Model the fold of this input.
Amino acid sequence: MSDEIPQHPPTYWGLIEERAAATPDVVLLEDEAGRSLTVAQYRDEAERVAAGLYAQGIGAGTRVSWQLPTAIDTLVLLAALTRLGAVQSPIIPILREREVRYITSEAGTELLIVRPQWRAFDFEALATSIAEEVGFRVLATDTLPTGDPATLPPPPGPEPTARWLYYTSGSTADPKGAWHTDPSVSAGANAWLTKLRPTADDVYPIAFPVAHIGGVCMLAVALVTGMRLVLVEAFDAARSPRFMAERGATLLGSALPFFHAYMAAQRAHGPERLFPGLRACVSGGAPKPPGLHEEIKETLGGVGVIGSWGLTEFPIATSGSFDDTDEQMSATEGAAGPGIEIRVVGLDGLDQPPGEEGELRLRGPQMFLGYANPALDADALDEQGFFHTGDLGIVAPTGHVTITGRVKDIIIRNAENIAASEIEDALHLHPAVADVAVIGLPDPRTGERACAVVKLADGVTTLSLADLAEHCRALGLAKQKVPEQLEIVDEVPRNAMGKIEKPALRKRYST
Done:
């Protein structure tokens, strides 16, 4: 396995042209409607759309936001904007008025592109209600404009200009916009390229929002390798896994809700493998719960779950490998991608040796340039130029990273720090628990108490706090870490990338 940093063209459009020249007839994209594009068709369609946008005044430096689902046309638009050298700010489709107003205002959006309607929501009405206030044009269409590529100016030059503005989720606070360049988003593919080593024979379905930074990174993986991407606009737990199986998926992602759907589909399918060509499931967006690797390996086949970890500001920093042991796959999110340095800093500010917990800080080729709000930059990097991830973790002597929680996801009970993730890991092992979040709530006696928010496993109708307490004690969990409150929910709220929306839970149960 090579740690050499992959070399990419200096522009993202260069990635597209390079792949189109190498394998023009290889299918790059497929969707549920039966549509597909070869690499050459993808390049050509992107140039036609670029010409259509150029005729409407969109060019180098124009700030374009788009709020679109995971579809072929969306990735064509992404490529068209890179061909023009426009600045693009993708917006995840689940975001609504508050977030869209904030993002378009901060990004200085000049054009917002949406579908008029999608999944029974009026995106055109949302966009137009904000447009006049913020000062942008709206293009609400199911068909992107096209024109004659001969009218286009030359492609953008190699200067590493800030052309991408990706936003964190901002579930309760304002979203944070992170500036990226063509080289930094392309480098987001490097960990996959060097550790998972996908080939042109691989098929990777994407059901997560391609408006997330993971979308542009996975497209880069496909452009470098010829791997085929299968796009799913709206994931349906019953229908989508069967569609992915029909398309020959060899790698499946990317978060806990998807993995549960794949396993449920396999059990409904019967003893024959639903995904006979599956090499691995690849997790990202949130740490794996205990036992998931073994369950997937037994249920779906392949090697199990290969973990990865990254952030909007620093996409796909680590990845597991097919060379990893079962223990490493089960307990870690892999090791750093090529060219990436990880610094582990304790809460006392001192560097920690291998095997000791601390905040994980990152430095490397895919690091963002800075925030759209410059006031946030001062606290983004430490004195050595490492990015403060806010994630707690341990780096083993082998370089494998285990995420243990968030710096701010600590429950302080009687002046003792308790990691919520440690309790969650224990509760995930209870047979009655399908999903769980542990949050700290204000407590007049202890300062904070641990509250377990639980989705029950299929067929389970009851679970008591006493049951959970007995389970925790049996696993050897310290008394102060045993949950003191239990809330049963239909679903543990997660965002589009599988991360638990803890601020919303704290707000709900604190009142």
User: Anything to note?
Assistant: The domain at 410-510 is CATH 3.30.300.30 (GMP Synthetase; Chain A, domain 3). The chain has three domains: 12-145+157-185, 188-406, 410-510.
